[in-house]
Amino acid sequence: MSIIRITPSPEPCVEAGWQASQYYLDHPVDRDLVNALRPLGTLLVLDKVRQPFFKVESHHYIIKGLLGDDSIRVAVHRDHTDETQHIIQTINDHE
Fold this sequence. Notes:
2 helices; alpha+beta; six-stranded antiparallel beta sheet; 95 residues
């Protein structure tokens, strides 16, 4: 899987000290990608709802999205933007 584009999130959160971005993927989010993100933080999966949802939380970032969608949202605290490189590598390394 590869990230094909990163754009600023349409939902502002800068005032709270966070920078959010939308990561567009070359394949839809699947359960395997969610499991690959598991080591990055605490994982929550709601798969009994109409559109299954996941969220990975760490002290410095939050990753969330819908299974089957072609993008995920990543919010990183402004003092830890270097963490995005690890997130990007994890997603791009996922096959």
